[in-house]
Design brief:
The protein has about 300 residues and is of the alpha/beta class. The chain folds into 2 domains: about 5-155 and about 200-305, 4-Layer Sandwich (Metallo-beta-lactamase, Chain A); about 160-195, no CATH class. It is built from 11 helices and 16 strands. Helix 10 packs parallel to helix 11. The protein has helices spanning about 40-45, 65-70, 70-75, 95-105, 160-165, 170-180, 195, 220, 240-245, 250-260, 275-290; strands at about 5-10, 25-30, 30-35, 55-60, 85-90, 115-120, 125-130, 130-135, 145-150, 185, 190, 205-210, 225-230, 265-270, 295, 300-305. The strands form 3 sheets. Strands 6-5-4-3-2-1-16 form a 7-stranded mixed sheet. The chain has a 7-stranded mixed sheet with strand order 7-8-9-12-13-14-15. The structure holds zinc ion (2 copies). One zinc ion binds near residues 12, 64, 66, 211 and 270.
């Protein structure tokens, strides 16, 4: 099952030429999930040539302009396709008011159902086929949530050689074992699924954390992520200023990633507009000295998220 992330924008505060505002699109076997939607998100979607008008869920971290001003356009243009399924929008308090006011003032034509859900507490906020999305509160200048999409475990691998060794004839009994049922052979012997099927294999986990000041509990929520997209707005020398503005340095993002354990890759995002492309390499070096598997997300980047084994 394919799982890919498209980086639609990497900037914080204001869009720059070549650097749109922080937003990512996750595509899981064709189903689309958008995380934040700053000004210009549509342009990034178009540039990537994505068929994006049937997004299932939009997760909003918080209602600062750099994370939500792209939303009205997305809602409006989503009406250009026929859809039966509702569009869910999940975010912290005020997101409902923001969506309703926009619909009203802009006289939006919307030909599908929009279901808005406001969240403040940690827990599952959306359940899909074979996965769920967990939200957790961050610490910013207004209510803000982080999100993890977590796939369910997959059944273990079926070993035909073990079935043959246990004298299970190929055919319907194999299917029963593969479907998790123990079987009885003609000679009365019982063959258990655990004899022929390996342990369940973990699904994948992708986490999105922006905007927040550093606090150690973030690690608990993002532990074991195959991919963590995390704000690291400033260099180490601006740690005090980051704290005042309730943002993080790239070193703090790396620290929470390293402390969490089990994270395969961490992509920095939400760069301060003060940093040029060249400056960002310094941001990366500082983070890599703490968590080596850190990379700088780039606008337009496509990232495959394969299974662990
Ligand atoms: Zn921001
Ligand atoms: Zn913010």
């Amino acid at each position: 099952m394919n799982l890919e992330l498209f980086v639609l924008g990497t900037g914080g505060m204001m869009p720059l030429p070549g650097r749109f505002l922080t937003s990512v699109l996750l595509r899981r076997e064709g189903e689309l999930f958008l995380f934040d939607s700053g000004e210009g998100t549509q342009v990034s979607l178009r540039k990537l040539n994505l068929k994006w008008k049937k997004i299932s869920v939009i997760f909003i971290s918080h209602t600062h302009a750099d994370h939500v001003t792209g939303l009205p356009g997305i809602l409006m243009l989503s009406s250009q396709v026929e859809r039966q399924e509702p569009l869910y929008i999940i975010g912290p308090p005020k997101i409902k008011e923001y969506v309703e006011m926009n619909r009203k003032v802009l006289d939006m034509y919307i030909n599908y159902e929009i279901i808005v859900k406001e969240v403040t507490k940690p827990g599952i906020v959306y359940k899909g086929d074979g996965f769920s999305v967990n939200a957790f509160p961050l610490r910013h200048t207004k209510p803000c949530m982080g999100y993890s999409l977590i796939e369910e475990e997959r059944p273990g691998v079926f070993f035909p050689d073990k079935a043959i060794k246990s004298n299970v004839p190929m055919g319907p009994l194999w299917s029963e074992l593969q479907n998790g049922k123990d079987v009885m052979l003609d000679n009365g012997n019982i063959v258990h699924t655990s004899d022929v099927i390996g342990l369940p294999r973990p699904g994948r986990k992708v986490s999105f954390v922006t905007d927040t000041q550093y606090f150690p509990e973030i690690s608990d929520y993002v532990r074991d992520s195959d991919l963590l997209i995390c704000e690291g707005m400033f260099k180490f020398d601006l740690e005090d200023s980051a704290k005042d503005k309730k943002h993080m340095t790239s070193s703090q993002a790396a620290k929470l990633t390293a402390d969490a354990g089990g994270i395969k890759r961490m992509g920095l995002i939400h760069y301060s507009p003060r940093y040029t492309k060249y400056d960002l390499s310094g941001l990366l070096e500082e983070a890599k000295s703490i968590f080596p598997d850190t990379f700088l997300t780039r606008d337009g980047q496509q990232i495959d998220i394969p299974y662990g084994e």
